[in-house]
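Hey,

The postdoc asked me to send both predictions to you directly instead of through the lab channel. I've kept everything plain text so nothing gets mangled by the mail client. Protein one:
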Amino acid sequence: MVEPYQNRIELLQGTLDMIILQTLQWGPQHGYAISQAIRAGSGDVLQVETGSLYPALHRLQRRGWLKSEWKQSENKQRTKVYSLTAKGKKQLAAEHDRWNKMTIAIAGLMNAKGSKT
């Protein structure tokens, strides 16, 4: 069973975590590429600032959902590249299930005719 979010902060972090995990499902990326993939994939609606992205990446790594390694970029700079672990893939599936349930619940509320009391 997928546990519900307990509070607003957990919901926001959980949503960011899910988006990062989803982005990394497409392959290993460095931080800037992750933020650009989120921006592009959302049609420029979602923009994750550095101050939110890197703490989230570190949190996900501490939980064992991501791993990282230093690589050299095309322009010869060292960059930290993040990728999903097996545990991260499992977490993404759980987050996706929770997200689907939440969007169905919210859609139900938004489309409800309401009752007059």
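Protein two:
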Amino acid sequence: MIAALYAIAMFVLLVFGLNMLWLAFNHAKHDRFELVAPDDQFEPYVTIQLPLYNESLVAGRLIDACASIDYPREKLEIQILDDSNDETVEIVARKVNEWRKSRVNIQHIRRLDRTGFKAGALQHGLRFATGDFIAIFDADFLPPPDYLRKLLSPFRDEHVGMVQARWGHLNSHESLLTRLQAFGLDMHFAIEQRVRNLKGCFITFNGTAGIWRRSCIEDAGGWQADTLTEDLDLSYRAQLRGWKFTFIPSVEVPAEVPADMNGFRIQQFRWTKGAVQTAMKLLPQLWKSDQSLKIKTEGTFQLTAHLVFPFIIIVVLLHAPLLYLKNVVGAPAELYFGLMGLGLIGFAGFFLANVFSQRVLYPDWVSRLSIFPTFLAGTMGLAASNLVAIGQALRGKQSAFIRTPKYSSTGVSRWASTRYASRRVPVIAWFEFFLAIYCTAGVGIIIYFQEWAALPFQLLFLGGFALITHFNFRQIRGT
């Protein structure tokens, strides 16, 4: 039973790895970004929506950046969808007054409650929006001045419903934690989003730094708050209705990645749980649709990608015990472990996707790849926390949309001194600590039986949970 469970987990990881290999190979055929020139002739009316909730450290710079965008002011409206209950309200009010004096059409919209959280705020603002196109930015983003002129051009095709830009990173060099996050996001945008778009598969609005055709939002049923990933949910509903999406990787919109472990964990928990909720909601509709098998298959990989985490936990828990059984009772046999080695093919897909993403984005990509082993270990280390998120989604447990704290970090860490910082770590952190100890014992077993071929994998498991435990302790210390 242990061997069978381990084999099933390895098979699942292999399948998802093969999908990454397919994405990587298709990227290799188109390994240069297509540049997009600003379109000065297409100037439809645009509404920029800025959903905020207690963003006092970043709200001002976001409003300044959006109000400074190069676009005719008579065709631009800015909606600040402010659900805050702290000093953010006063900061926004001052900024609104400043820009109104410069003849910027900017509205400060407040609700009586946070019904529907971000999805509810976006839907509420849509009722008052005057634009035919809706651009959305989270509080920690800084759109460049030519953003609208570059991203509006694809909308000349009336079938295009959404255009997404690539995320950049304002604070990627701040710490090991921020570097790891930036590394993973680069692969998502440069490989997953881009290749799926090139191959005619479904892609997603990433919640920010994208523009919607208003009629597309309305045709797809509007923003809905029954999942924690309202962006993924609306993206699939719109594309199932026949709308085309476009991803423009050459347009970068810089933003913060979470500077502390709690913020990162909150973000990953929300993304994981929301993706599983969306999969449960929309996978049946996807497979009942008249979309091609390629779109259905790749869409399934995208919607269920986070389900790899339970299988990672299974592999982590059973790897050393299987080697113990092999040496003590003589089973499983060598052939079994040879077959399990096929999982390296899946690992190759994950590795190549990250290699190609760094190569297409950065001139110093070779040196940047040195962080890959740590990134791989850290991805495994998140498995326990994300397992809780998956369990809640499968049980149908509802939870609030918890915002990721933003600290206006642009190179020097100061998160711990802000009012949004929390040094408490969740209970799951103790399980992560236990798994680090457990993996350490596994290393001892492997060394005792001299199973040297298995040692790198066990060290990878140990490194992942030790790294997350390290970040947890740094959270407590506020460093």
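Summary for protein two, as requested: Residues 261-288 form the longest helix (28 residues).

Thanks,
C.
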